[in-house]
Specification:
Blueprint lengths: L1 H16 L3 H10 L3 H32 L1 H24 L16 H13 L2 H14 L6 H26 L2 H30 L1
Length: 200
């Protein structure tokens, strides 16, 4: 179980570090106000909690009703993770720091931005389903799946908080803007390798 948890968290971390809508939004809010950035992180994590809950409950139903469908989800999940990895390898992140000052969003607005950005992104559920279906066996108890889901949300919270704290440092901003595409490609390579290993 411990090995599966490490892999789940590793795959999720690689996906988090490759720029996507959540990172873009945290980036935008944190560079205007650390408080707004934290509000955005809280909103994203609440949205992530909803996705994880739906994924855990959905897999439990699928396993009970159709083992064949569960196997189909597993193979489709490996393909989807491979697709995400290829996108990271071939895309540009596009995060740039503007010189001009922008007004900080109120706490509530930043929270809602983060919540709806994550909640309305179906790719989050697809990714979580893909990872869980690969690494959790059909006989895995629901409470163990829920524990994995909780670990996923906590990891997301800690990574985004750390990212926001680092964005407050000018030296980090300069280095991140310069090397963000290399980070994205490294994460893409890891996801591609893991997808192939999961499929076989």
């Amino acid at each position: 179980m411990f090995e599966s948890l490490v892999v789940v968290l590793g795959v999720a971390l690689a996906a988090q570090l490759s720029p996507g809508p959540d990172m873009m939004l945290i980036f935008r809010h944190t560079t205007t106000s650390f408080r707004a950035g934290m509000a955005c992180v809280l909103g994203i994590c609440l949205g992530l909690t909803v996705h994880v809950t739906l994924s855990v409950a959905g897999l439990a139903v699928v396993i009970r009703t159709s083992p064949m469908l569960f196997n189909a989800i597993r193979y489709a999940g490996a393909i989807y993770i491979l697709y995400v990895g290829i996108r990271c390898l071939t895309g540009n992140s596009g995060l740039t720091f503007k010189a001009e000052e922008k007004p900080a969003a109120p706490f509530g607005q930043a929270f809602r931005d983060g919540l709806f950005c994550n909640l309305l992104n179906p790719k989050v559920t697809l990714f979580i389903l893909s990872v869980f279906s690969q690494l959790l066996a059909p006989e895995t108890p629901t409470h163990i799946r829920a524990l994995f889901g909780l670990a996923l949300v906590l990891e997301g919270f800690l990574v985004w908080v750390l990212f926001s704290m680092l964005l407050d440092r000018p030296a980090f901003r300069i280095h991140y803007e310069r090397y963000q595409n290399a980070v994205s490609r490294g994460c893409g390579f890891i996801l591609c390798v893991l997808a192939v290993l999961m499929a076989v």
